[in-house]
Design a protein that fits this description.
Length: about 200
């Protein structure tokens, strides 16, 4: 804190004035104070403090890509009369984790400049819903079990778009058909041990 002018009066008479006074009766030793503005804490973990508002990203569906939804951070406590939106890169930084596979993705907002501390937001990556159908087959009873297998008989349907199938880069690696029918009648051609892998070979 800088002192730029000092004036000492005795009654109505100036007895010391640093800037242009007529008398100089004091030798003044300047000991300036200190003005400190501390960075404001965004929060403690997931808890908000002091007017900090963070938007909530919407849920998405797994599509094999990395999801990085944008967020807004505002400080409603600033003395501007309006809710001030903070600037990413100046007031805070953003990082993402667990944001590819289905589950709960985490966004970490870390204060910068006038802000310190961090806040976390999470959003859901829903599982991609598909339908996998096995083939049907029929014959006349001959005492030999009827089976029908082969991955080529599988079909896919997504709840995202009827024209879609699996997420880009994902494919069925293996499946085991277990359906069997020997006597006259019908049963389901079921399957198990379905393995879906992405382009890197990960399950």
């Amino acid at each position: 804190n800088t002192i730029t002018a000092v004036s000492i009066n005795r009654g109505t008479k100036t007895v010391y004035a640093e800037n242009g006074g007529t008398a100089n009766n004091y030798k003044v030793e300047k000991r300036p104070g200190k003005l400190t503005v501390a960075a404001k804490s965004l929060g403690n973990g997931a808890e908000y403090t002091g007017g900090i508002i963070v938007s909530q990203p919407a849920a998405v569906t797994y599509d094999g890509s990395t999801h990085t939804p944008g967020i807004t951070v505002s400080d409603s406590s600033l003395k501007t009369g309006v809710k001030a939106e903070l600037v990413q890169g100046t007031d805070y930084t953003v990082s993402y984790s667990n944001n590819t596979a289905a589950g709960t993705a985490v966004i970490t907002i870390t204060g910068k400049g006038n802000y310190t501390g961090s806040i976390t937001r999470s959003f859901t990556i829903n599982k991609r819903r598909i339908t996998i159908s096995s083939d049907s087959a029929s014959k006349t009873y001959d005492g030999i079990a009827l089976t029908k297998g082969g991955t080529a008989s599988l079909s896919y349907n997504s709840d995202i778009n009827a024209a879609d199938s699996m997420a880009a880069g994902d494919s069925i690696s293996s499946v085991n058909f277990t359906g069997t029918q020997t006597d006259a009648g019908s049963s389901k051609n079921t399957y198990d041990n379905l393995v879906i892998k992405n382009s890197s070979g990960s399950v």
